[in-house]
Amino acid sequence: MTEYRKLLPEVTPLHDPFWEALRQHELKLQKCVDCGKFRYIPTEICQYCHSQDAEWTAVSGRGEVYTFTIVRRAPTPAYQEETPYAIVHVTLPEGPRMISTIVDCPVEDVRIGMPVEVVYEDATPHQTLFRFRPV
Fold first, then answer.
1. Phi-psi label, residue 104: left if phi above 0, alpha if psi -120 to 50, beta otherwise
2. Nearest by Cα to 52 from 9, 14, 98, 91
3. Mean pLDDT for the stretch of residues 118-128
4. Which of 24, 68, 75, 107 could form a disulfide with 88 if both were Cys (CB 3.0 to 4.6 A apart)?
5. In terms of domains, do 121 and 88 share one?
6. pLDDT tens figures, 18-74
């Protein structure tokens, strides 16, 4: 594996179950035990009912593009060869919206409402990232 030069998220204890699931090529989100709503990004308290009880639950990994932007100017040299690329906000059927890039799709083909699914990128031996691709 070559050295990964792009930015990587910081993994905190609260978020570790999310990242551990990604390492296993699964998408799991916090789900409130009391009201049943999913929460992303993980929090200690449910924004809907204020419960502190949550469990990590597998979700479908499918969704649709809510909105997107095209990046034409790389934020660092590590991203230069990928420009232009699309950053998408994807609404999952379970409710939450997630942000990532879209792969396997020319930027001119990205559309609002486009059905997508999660794919996994093993960035380092210890960190897996999620991306979306068209279904």
1. left
2. 14
3. 95
4. 68
5. yes
6. 999 999 999 999 999 999 999 999 999 999 999 999 999 999 999 999 999 999 999
Q: For residue range 90-121, what is the model confidence (pLDDT) as tens digits?
A: 999 999 999 999 999 999 999 999 999 999 99
Q: Which helix (H) or strand (E) holds 29?
A: strand 28-32
Residue 73 burial (10 A CB sphere; 0-12, 13-18, 19+)? exposed
Structural domains counted in the chain: 2
DSSP 102: B
Q: pLDDT class for 3, splitting at 50, 70, 90?
A: confident
Helices (H) and strands (E) in the chain, counts: 1, 8
Query: Which residue, of 38, 59, 80, is where some domain finishes?
Result: 59
Those residues with Cβ within 8 angstroms of residue 59's Cβ, 6 or more apart along the chain or in another chain: 27, 28, 29, 38, 92, 94
